[in-house]
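anyone else get weird line breaks when pasting these?? whatever heres mine. first is seq + tokens for prot A
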Amino acid sequence: MRNQPANHKYKRIKELESAILSNTEKRDTLMTMLSQDLIEPKEMMTKTTKLIDQSNQYRQKLSKLRSTIGKNDSLIIATRELLNYVDNHPIQTEFNPRLFEETVEKITIEDNSHLVFHLFCGLNLPERI
């Protein structure tokens, strides 16, 4: 797996994460169906157990895949995750302290006219002040 291009790894990580999310949504749907008496408890438990087992397999694959990611791959993936977030959220027109705290790990001052924002995803964004 170490020789796989970062693009393939990133795509596979996203596929696994989507599959886990999909299984979670399916389990929620089964719970709703049970509460509305649209499914028998035994059938709901069987299907839920199957979804949980499948999600655990996806998590194991995800963990194994993430362990093969080198420093450069991590930076590429972090950049793509940040771009994905930006593409899927509205532009911020005012400061959002919660979003800032969730995104920025720390800020370092380089000199009197430069600082660097260190993001939790591993990216460092230099800024001129």
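and prot B, same format (seq, then tokens)
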Amino acid sequence: MEAGKKRLATLVGCNYAHTRHELNGCINDVHAMRDVLVSRFGFAPGDVALLTDAPGSAVLPTGANIRGALAAMIGRAEPGDVLFFHYSGHGTLIPPVRPHHGWHKPDEAIVPCDFNLITDLDFRQLVDRVPRGASFTMVSDSCHSGGLIDKEKEQIGPSTVAACSSAAVRKARAMPFESVLSHLASLSASTPFTSATTWWSCLGQRRARGSLTAASTRCRIR
């Protein structure tokens, strides 16, 4: 990356502790990603915003707080700057807000810790505010992540690859829309969701990690 240009990041990890949708590795994911951005890619620690639902977290990853953090990051951006957003948590599919995908294709969304969903249309509106000449990269370690920026051409993920639409792929960090509605209506416990996490050695400790994040943070600059 060109010297003198700002490198700004917003990292979000949701474990949904003490809910039936609890995950194990999402907070670990964002801490590992922050370390990679600072040590390998030259991001200043003060320019990396961290939102997790860990106990005592300074800023919880609610829908409003995530939107606010992304808006603040984009508001600081100038031509040539590098913007990076990493999300680790549940993804879901919702009935289309409007028939921009066709009448039968649902919208993709991420699930903040307060279940105030952020949809592909929300991300489209945010990305449209990025200054011309600045770059915006989004990595979502969640299910249904392949179409999270509405109408964006360069996207990779299960939502854009038909071969990856099997039940085995979808269940990793997926949350059915009905479960979102159920959680908002009632906090009664039921059968917990299972997170497909990768266990690997990190600083001598074994930690739960998302598969995509584990692969991303082990990359090397060539």
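btw re prot B: Residues 7-217 form a domain with the Rossmann fold fold (CATH 3.40.50.12660). The longest strand covers residues 7-13.
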